[in-house]
Amino acid sequence: METISWQDFAKVELRVGTIIAVEDFPQARKPAYKLQLDFGSEIGIKKSSAQITTLYSKEQLVGKQVMAVVNFPLKQIGPMQSECLVTGFARKDGAIVLVTVDSPVPNGAKLG
């Protein structure tokens, strides 16, 4: 594991966003959803794709606050451009568990 400096870590914009829309993403190579997340007035609404169909239904995701990296460059994923990276941890079976918050916080709040 490579050690990074505090300054390196401070460059990563880990922010809380609320999932406001979820669609199927049939063009993805692995089962995935297209997500729209609200990061508040400073950052706005961003799109992402997430391979989280094993553990989450579309209905379970709307309104959920998750942690995402919002300052990566755009990434083309099939026909869509991902504007942020939703974070999660892989279980032994490969299913992704989203990084969420215990209590509601303002959209756009920064991990710090």
Helix tally? 3
Structural class call reads mainly beta
Shape: globular
Based on CA atoms alone, the radius of gyration comes out at 14 Å
What is the topology, as strand order, of the major beta sheet? Answer: 3-2-1-4-7
Element-level helix/strand string: HEEHEHEEEEEE
Q: What is the straight-line distance between the termini?
A: 22 Å
Question: In percent, how helical is the residue content?
Answer: 10-25%
Strand count, sense and barrel status of the largest sheet are: 5 strands, antiparallel
Instruction: Give a count of the beta strands, DSSP E runs of length 2 or more.
Output: 9
* Low-pLDDT residue spans: none
Question: How would you describe this structure to a colleague?
Answer:
By secondary structure, the protein is mainly beta. Helices cover 12% and strands 38% of the residues. It has helices spanning 6-10, 40-43, 58-61, and strands spanning 14-24, 33-38, 45-50, 65-69, 75-77, 80-82, 85-86, 88-90, 96-98. β5 and β6 (80-82) form a beta hairpin. The longest helix is centred in the N-terminal third of the chain and has 5 residues, at 6-10. The chain starts with 5 loop residues before the first helix and ends in a 14-residue tail after the last strand.
Question: What can be said about this structure in brief?
Answer:
The chain has 112 residues and is mainly beta. The protein is built from three helices and nine strands. A hairpin with an 8-residue loop joins strand 1 and strand 2 (33-38).
